[in-house]
Amino acid sequence: MAVDLTTTLSWKSATGDASTMLDELQPNILKPHVRDHLSALFLRFTNVVEARVFLATLAKQQMKSAKQHLREVDAFKADATTGTPYVGVGLTASGYRFLGVRKAPADPSFQRGMRAPETRRTLTDPPRSTFDPGYRDELHAVVLVGDATDSAMTARRNEILALLPDSATVLTEEIGLGRINARGESIEHFGYVDGRSQPLFLGEDLDAEKNTTDGINVWNPGAPLGQVLVPDAAAPNPAAHFGSYFVFRKLEQNVRRFKQAESDLADTLGLRGTDRERAGAMIIGRFEDGTPLTTQREDGAESPVSNNFTYDSDENATKCPYQAHIRKTNPRGSGGVEELPQERQHLMARRGVPYGERADDPNADLPPSARPSGEVGLLFMAFNASLGNQFEFTQANWANNPAFPRVRTVPPAPPVVPGLDPVIGQGTRTPSDYVVDWGGKAKQTADPVPQAVTLKGGDYFFMPSLAFLRALA
Ligand code: HEM
Ligand SMILES: [Mn+2]
What we know:
Region (Disordered): 291-316
Shape: globular
Helix content: 25-40%
Number of helices: 14
Radius of gyration: 22 Å
Domain Dyp-type peroxidase C-terminal: 241-398
Family: Belongs to the DyP-type peroxidase family.
Number of strands: 14
Keywords: Heme, Iron, Metal-binding, Oxidoreductase, Peroxidase, Signal
GO molecular function: peroxidase activity
Largest sheet: 6 strands, antiparallel
Bound molecules: protoporphyrin IX containing FE, manganese (II) ion
Structural class: alpha+beta
Distance between the termini: 29 Å
Strand content: 15-25%
C-alpha cells in the first residue's frame, strides 16, 4: 500500500511501503534525534567516482534508519540503553549536478540554492562576502554527526573523516553544543526555552503530547507526513524511498545587544521589578522558562511548558504582541491572511542547536555588558517538503513583512503595522506597539528592537533516502 502522506503515521504498526519508507529514511526528520553535541561537515568534491564511493560507504557503514532511531528511543525509555550516533547526509543542487544524478530533487528554491541572487532578495539576506569564509564557495554536501556526548560524537566524526577521500575538501565545520536551563530544558543563547513547539508527524508522538503534556485540544501540533517528506525521485523506488529538504543557517547572536534591547524596552514601557521580564517575553512570545505570554502575565509554567494555546483570546494583542517571534512564525490561526489549514502548511520541522561557548549563565541576572556580543548563536536547521512554502515563506512573508499579521481595523481607527520579527526579521525595522500592562488597554510605541541575529552562512540541501545513497556505488 502506498505511503499515506495526508496524515500522521503510527510507526509501530506501519506495514508495506510505510514500513519500507522508515527503513530507508534518514533519522531526525520525522522526530528529533539527540544532537547536544553536533558536528556539521561541509564538503566539496573534485572526483565523481570517489565522491560516490564515499557517500555509498557512509550509508552502508555509518548511517542508521529512521526506524532504527525510533527503536533506540524506545530501548532508551525502557532500560536506558544508549543509542548510536546520528549520521545525516545532505546534498546541494550543485552536489547533485556534480555527481551526475538524473532526476535531482525538483523544488525550485532548492534548484536555485540559497546563494542565488533571487533567493537573497527573497529573504533579504546579507551578501555572501560577509559570511564566514567556509561558506563563500559552492558546497556539495553536508554530513551531520550528532549524539548526547562529546566523546561518542567525536569518535564517529573521526571515523567519517577517515573515510573521506583526499579528493574531497572539508570547507568548514560547525560544532553544535546544546544548552539547558535549571529545569533541564533546552535553551538558546538569549536564554529562552527552544524547540518546544513542533509539528508532530508520528501518531505515537501525538498521543504522548495528548496524554502526558498539556494536551492538544486547543492547538493540535499533528501534521501530515507530506509536510516534511517528499518522494526521492532519484532513488530505486520513489514510492517507498523518501527524503526531505534541509535548511541550514548559521545565525550569530549578539546576546549583549539583545539583552540591552530587553532592558531598553522595559524602561520605555516603565516595567518594574519582576514584570521587567515581560519585555523579553514580548519580543519572543514566551518567557525565558517557556511560559507562553498569551496565557500568563508572568513566568512559572509547568515543565514541559505548554504548547496547547492559540491567540484566539488575544485578538487585540493585549497580552502577546502581534510581532512577537512565535506569533509571527506560527500565528496559530490568527494571521488574518489565510484559513488555518493553509496557514499551518508553512510550519517546518525545526532541528536547530546552539553553537559557541560562553562563561556567563544565560538566565542569570547580569548586566548586558557581561554578555557575549558574538561567536555564539544558533545553527538553525529545519526539514521541509517545500522550501518556498515553508522556510522561505516564514522568513520572507511573515518575519520580514512589517504588515504581518494582517490586523483588521475599522476606520477611523488607524491601520496597525506590527513590524518585523524582532528576533529574526531582516530588512528595515520600524517602531512597534506594546501593551503597557498585561491584558490592559494602553499601548505604547517603542523604538525597533535592533537586529541581534546575523546570518553567517548556510545552504539548502536535500537529505535523500538511504537506498539512493547506497546505490551511488
Ligand atoms: C537565532 C535565531 C533564533 C532564535 C534565538 C529563536 C528563538 C526561538 C524561541 C525561543 C522559540 C520558542 C520555543 C518554541 O516554541 O519552540 C522559537 C520558536 C519558533 N521559531 Fe525561532 N528562533 C530563531 C530563528 C528562527 C528562524 C530562522 C525561524 C524560521 C524562519 C524560526 C521559526 C520559529 C518557529 C516556527 C517557532 C515555533 C513557533 C510556534 O510554533 O509557536 N526561528 N524560536
Ligand atoms: Mn531575563
